[in-house]
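Data deposition worksheet. Section B asks for the primary sequence of the deposited chain exactly as it was used as input, without tags or linkers unless they were present during the calculation. Section C holds the resulting structure in token form. Section D is free text for depositor observations; keep each observation to a single sentence. Incomplete worksheets are returned to the depositor.
Section A, Depositor: J.P.
Section B:
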Amino acid sequence: MSKLEKIQKRVFDIVLSLIGITFTWWIVFFAWVVASIETKSNGLFMQKRVGKGGELFWVFKIKTMKSIVGVDTTVTTSTDNRITKSGMFFRKTKIDELPQLFNVLFGTMSFVGPRPDVVGFADQLQGDDRILLTLLPGITGPASIKYKNEEELLANQENPEEYNKEVIWPDKVQINKVYLKEWSLKNDIDYIIKTILG
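Section C:
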């Protein structure tokens, strides 16, 4: 991406995130209250993810799962019994992702790009694949759209974590490399529309 293209992308992110926050803040607040009540904890989920340049940042989401000490939460499926009733609805409607509008506004994420992963994925990229670290993580993107039913896909695997690392993750890397190579603001807008339309 050229310097001008990076500026275009950032300006687009700022404007759209401000519009999104203006119209959805009340949904985020209501979801936070419901999640707080159901999980009996702060309804805002915060987790360190790998961002641009491999630096860690806090990603914001509405909490959809009950915390269980000592249980891994890096890979979840739609049948995970830790998911709350409201959490199932928030995930299905993507309401749990709305707090990430603040990530976009603050500049730690973009609307479109590779999904922000926990340590052990993006930070382990090698060779030409490390070009993806020049991008801000995105709320959506071509890989996210292809794997929009990722939780259901993982639920049908004998070893979800292994399948994610050996099949899904490598495919996402290749998809995102093509995204970066063919980037345009029009493509970003198309991905956002596809995500909204489901």
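Section D:
The mean pLDDT is 92.
Residues 3-197 form one domain.
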